[in-house]
Amino acid sequence: MSEDTLLKSMAPRTHIRQGVELGFAVGLRLMRTLCGPKWAPNVLLIQTTPASPLSTYKKLPGVLPRFNAAENTIVFAADWLTRPVSDSDPELRRLMQQQLQSLDNVYRDEIPDWVTQLIRGLLAQGDATLYIIASHLGLGARTLQQALQ
């Protein structure tokens, strides 16, 4: 049974559980795409209770998830991080890095305007703190401070 089959077979459950299991399915598929078919997690830790009987999860390739965990985590051997990406294309990588760098530059140029808008909107609520503004921008507080210097 594949991750897709598991997701399709689930009866309507809470949105949180569906989101978590969808996130795992996407993460597992992404890792297999990047690392190749031999990649497998060592452990899957899932915060929620099972959406289906455990027998359903035993049909999945790889490892049986551990439910009611403290956090949602995919654990795998660290040596996978040092291996080359399967089917990688050096020219495509160079082009993607170039595009990401240009997007990063545009993003950083717009941060002051976004901060100004957020401050205006959050002042009325009394929530215009560095940490809240940084969170709205998807940044850490220190990163935001550095971007505004």
TrEMBL record:
Pfam families in the cross-refs: Arabinose_bd
Cellular component terms (Gene Ontology): cytosol
Record's keyword annotation contains DNA-binding: yes
GO molecular function terms attached to this record: DNA-binding transcription factor activity; transcription cis-regulatory region binding
Domain HTH-type transcriptional regulator AraC-type N-terminal as annotated: residue spans: 16-85
InterPro entries per record: AraC-type_N
Protein name in the entry: HTH-type transcriptional regulator AraC-type N-terminal domain-containing protein
